[in-house]
Amino acid sequence: MKYKRHFILIFATQTFNFFTIIMKKILFLFILSSIFFISKTFGQANSYTVTLNNITQTSNETLEFDVWIHWTGTNTAYLTFFEGGINFNYAGLANGGTLSASFVNGSADPALPIDQQTVSANIDPTSLQYRIYPSIITSADITIPLNSTGIRLGTFKITNTVPFAIGSMPNFVWNNAAPTATTTKTRVAVFIGASSSATNVTNIASHLVSGNPAMVNGLPIQLSDFEVESNYQNQVISWTTLSERDNDFFVLEHSTDGYTFSPLAYMPSKAKNGYSQNALDYEYINENPQSGINYYRLTQHDIDGKTSISSTIQAAFIKQAFIQLFPNPVKEYIHLQYESDHNAHVTIAIFDLQGRVVNRVNTTVYTGSQTLDLASALIPQGTYLLSVVENNKEVYNTLFSK
Predict the structure, then answer these.
(1) 179, exposed or middle or buried, with CB in 10 Å at 0-12, 13-18, 19+?
(2) How far apart are CA 165 and CA 96, in angstroms?
(3) Assuming Cys at both sites, which of 155, 213, 386, 395 could form a disulfide with 104, CB separation 3.0 to 4.6 Å?
(4) Kind of pairing between the strands at 62-73 and 46-57
(5) Mind listing the pLDDT tens digit for each residue in 5-64?
(6) Are residues 77 and 71 in contact, defined by beta-carbon separation less than 8 angstroms?
(7) pLDDT tens figures, 372-401
(8) Cα–Cα distance between 260 and 282 in angstroms, integer?
(9) In this prediction, what percent of the chain has a pLDDT beyond 70?
(10) 69: β partners
(11) How far apart are CA 363 and CA 344, in angstroms?
């Protein structure tokens, strides 16, 4: 009986030890698989891509390109800063000259905080790398979520002191190697989730370069002052050529995302037989721009069928609201029917015929149709001018009587 109890104790102990070992292995495999699953899920669910596109030779000595940041994932990501290092064919482009870098002011996405709409860029004299430096912003300003459509960081320029070497190619490549004293590693910093989150997540970006065109000399046109101006009815696109050679016509192209462009207008060359050494002005009015950011570029067509594409310009468009006063003459209240496709702060002012302010009201209007009521019981009988100002611009005025 004594040996039997001993045998049972040993058997029980060994069984318990075997069970413990098995459970530890199962637990280890579970933890390992969980870590792999979480890592894989996060990696698949959240990623961003930095793209360099619309590489355009704008003159014999200048080259421009756009930088975009795209985010795809189940988590919302808020941009904190971007920095980029671009390796390229310095010697081939320079052609014995000296290259310099610059940022094209006004080219950034207007949705970006104002302190991210101007970015520093230079070409390091030692590494000859094109370097884009970050504009770090505080968490209070981090309100712009990234998305798959992307945010346009802006347009960047390379300027040469002499014409580019004919046939040379920029061979742009994003640098993803460890940074040095003279090089920059391309990276994006974002906040994941709420913009007030204290965790700053920096990931390795996917890097894309769309096209590396060969340089030419003696461009068919010398383009100047390509710009767009917005008002509440339309957008006016204008450009000037300082010279034209064998130019046949322009096609003005339009886009709402900065990527996909479609023809908007055909503009024949004003130069006689396609040749001019004088400044020529062109203008087109887009009567139906989309609400939000509108992008434009020019495709220039030679007489022999060759084409060249300009850099991209952009401007925000806010459609003018429909406003109507009723009744007229007014009684105890002035009613304003207000239909808008956006939210806005407005100032409504009433003036007498001597220009004196009788009443002024600041209010907010919202997307859709609404009626604004202004008390007029205390206004003496007479004729008055009502004015509505939105974003420091008058959008409506009318005379009414009481």
Answers:
(1) middle
(2) 9
(3) 155
(4) antiparallel
(5) 343 333 344 444 544 555 554 444 444 443 333 333 333 356 778 888 888 888 888 999
(6) yes
(7) 999 888 889 999 999 999 877 788 899 999
(8) 24
(9) 78
(10) 50, 151
(11) 9
CB crowding 366-402: b at 16 or more within 10 Å, else e: eeeeeebebebeebeeeebebbbbbeeeebbeeebeb
* Measured distance CA(343)–CA(105) in Å, rounded: 27
Structure tokens at 351: 């003036």
Radius of gyration of the chain (CA): 31
Three-class SS state of 188? strand
DSSP string, 259-327: S--EEEEEEE--SGGG-BSS-EEEEEEESSPPSEEEEEEEEEEETTS-EEEPPPEEEEE-PPPEEEEES
What pLDDT score does 196 carry? 45
Query: Does residue 73 have a pLDDT over 90?
Result: no
What single letter denotes the amino acid at residue 232?
Y
For residue 22, the Cα-to-chain-centroid distance in whole angstroms is 56
Cα distance between residue 203 and residue 198, in whole Å: 16
393 sits in the region (left: phi over 0; alpha: psi -120 to 50; else beta) called beta
Tokens linked to 66? 């756009």
Instruction: Give dist(CA 336, CA 284) in Å, integer.
Output: 34
Measured between alpha carbons, how far is 215 from 179 in angstroms, rounded to an integer? 29
Question: Would you tell me how many other CB atoms lie within 10 Å of the CB of residue 50?
Answer: 22
